[in-house]
Amino acid sequence: MNELWERALESLRGRLSAENFDTWLAPVRCEGLEGDAVVLRIPNRFYADWITNHYNDLLLDALAEVWLDATDSPSRLRFEIDEALQAPPKRVELETPARPRARPAVRRDPTPVRFTDLNPKYSFDNFVVGPSNQLAHAACVAVGDAPGKRYNPLFIYGGVGLGKTHLMNAMGHTILRDKPDAVILYLSAERFTNEFIWSLQNHRIDEFRRRYREQCDVLLMDDIQFLAGRDQTQEEFFHTFNALYHSDRQIVVTSDVYPQQIVEMEERLISRFQSGMVADIQPPELDTRIAILKKKAEAEKIHLTDDVALFIAQHVKSNVRELEGTLLRIAVKAELLGRGIDLDLAKESLRASLPTNEQALTVEDVQRAVCTYFNIKLGDLKSKRRHRAVSYPRQVAMYLCRQRLGTSYPELGERFGGKDHTTVMSAVRKIDGLVEAEDEQTQRALEAVGRKLGL
Ligand code: ADP
Ligand code: MG
Question: Would residue 117 count as lying in a domain?
Fold first, then answer.
């Protein structure tokens, strides 16, 4: 039975997002069969509802597929709660980097390990500290050593791909190492929102509140800017925050902008965030970028010479994820070609990844060209003003940056005065709609600005 369960799970792995799979299915253990029901052990009540509502048919179908005689495959799921179960495959990886493919179906380890969503890849050991992230790093180390004490709440902000999620996870691991029983809830604000809405709809709100307000020792909430404009979830988070805060439990929040720049965020939440420690992460300086490349190369066993490291670091500046991605891309290429990584290969690879004729163009170039065309000020373009005389050019500029430069939504949000990525997305969608409708004003504007920029 366990083997069949494992096979069914494997077939589902590719069909769900990794996050959903790891969150909801990986911790589940199969107990066996009882009549026509498969008995599943789960960490808490929440899982039973979630799995029933989201994955019931999917799981039964997957089991039927691997069943020897499909006509008598199980037709129901039955759940048993086992709080000691909290067996995280992800934490197992912490000790053994290679992902264990077959998970033991029954956990025999006498010391229960709590389920956690922390990512084992991220630790303080593999985080490179430099002037750009020193403060945030120090604050996270301090919180990791003494959660709920000095820096509560801790608010970390910084652009995309600069290490916020990394630091947050590293902090979680440190706390767990000292206090293996601590209940650390690490999740994105998006997941908090989804769980909250689902709990409301399914009359499980009491359970939801117990989970986040009472049963949680440390709350690590990633990407809080997602709550922008979501009044009801903000309200819920506010009360969660207070409950934890007043019983000295640690709260850590990350955001892609400074607290006050989160658009459509309740003032009282912002002031809560500011009441603790606020630490920023800036894009790393050249030396830090080189150090990051070297650390990554070491971890991936890539032979990286100083001149190549310098070259890459000089050309990829604003995002550590891209920095690492570039290194890996070059390494893969070298392996395919059966040659070492030298400066020539690095140059070739980087040239290929930059769009040719647009490579010199920046977001700022587009913004200026749009301002000139519409005769408005750059400050207005980046402001929060919603008057059409300003908002329309802003949308056009966002659209052009996205289409022609391929800039990411979060980065665009930031470059246009700290707006949420969803704002940028809807702007791009809107102009896209106008283009499709062959709106004359929009066509004229895009053509003129494009010509000016040589696009
Ligand atoms: P964010 O959450 O701020 O968008 P992440 O924490 O996801 O960024 O970081 C993106 C990638 O860059 C991750 O793979 C992370 O390990 C790596 N990274 C970021 N900063 C550093 C650093 N200072 N040292 C080592 N790796 C880093
Ligand atoms: Mg992140």
Answer: no
